[in-house]
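Reposting from the mailing list since nobody answered there.

I have sequence plus structure tokens for a pair of proteins and want to know whether others read the tokens the same way I do. The first protein:
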Amino acid sequence: MSNDNEKSPELTLLGSSDVPFPASPEEATLESFDNPSPDRDYWIELDCPEFSSLCPVTGQPDTALISIRYVPDRLCIETKSLKFYLASYRNCAAFNEAVANRIADDITSAVAPRGLELRAEFAARGGISLSVEVSHP
């Protein structure tokens, strides 16, 4: 068993303080590590209370609480890479529904979870708040 203090060679962001945030989701990488308990179903919950993207029509910022729950299969999401990935949306102009679905798709592509639930609770704009729930499978 490896020492938890040792950096895995495939993790490029963890332990690096001089890496700039990616400018877009296309430039971001979701990194992963081996599930320490692949024979057990368990939920991992991740919350990003300071998510932001841009309205594709007005260019105004949309802010949201992004909550991710997943049951890992072989791989788990490395959280610093998730932080960088989610931050890459700050300059991304897209409708809220597209943003939530893309995040779910990208996580599913990166770690192939046994199950995934994503909830994006966008702050009210124009007096209406919007929430999007995505699940896999």
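The second protein, same order (residues first, tokens after):
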Amino acid sequence: MKSADKSIDGNSGNTATKIRCFLGFKVDARDSLSSLREELNSLANKAESKLRPTTDQNLHLTLQFFGSVNQERLGSIQSIAEQIASRHPAIRLHMQGIGFFRNAIWIGVKPDPALLVMAEECKLAFSAIGLGSIDSQYLPHITVARFDSNAKLPLSQLTDKYGHQQWGFFCAEEISLFRSDTLPGGARYSVIFTAALAKP
């Protein structure tokens, strides 16, 4: 599925550009995750692993996922994000452990109370304007690699080795709206706007 496409607005009959996007925090963890990244890159060199490590510039912590939205709604998203950011100071977040989704490897982020409050505010504010789901549960994590359904990976070994690993901290200082584009080599994220968190 492409991240930007055209759809017909049923009310106006106009063609509207849709952008696949999400709110989140940039994560600078190149040093903290260096040993894991080296191991993932080594696995990715084996064809049977079908592993695609996340690039340093794509590391992020999602706050609110939107999927494909009409470009005309970006102004409303920015306004709400700026209001929420203005009420919350920067957060120092702790990375720990490792986990897996059906096709992804991720690093856990300790569910800091301030982060959970911000995520809940986002969910309520955006669901009120028809974006996101009010029933979604927030699991803070940083995706470090993706893989195909038929991949052959030593996931149990990674769990044994890194399941209780303490990866260190990163500071979330501004909320970014990321655009997600699906390319042949994998996803590419670019920042549409940022909203600085409040000064302490």
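Reply #1 (J.P.):
I read it the same way you do. The two ends are 41 Å apart (CA to CA).
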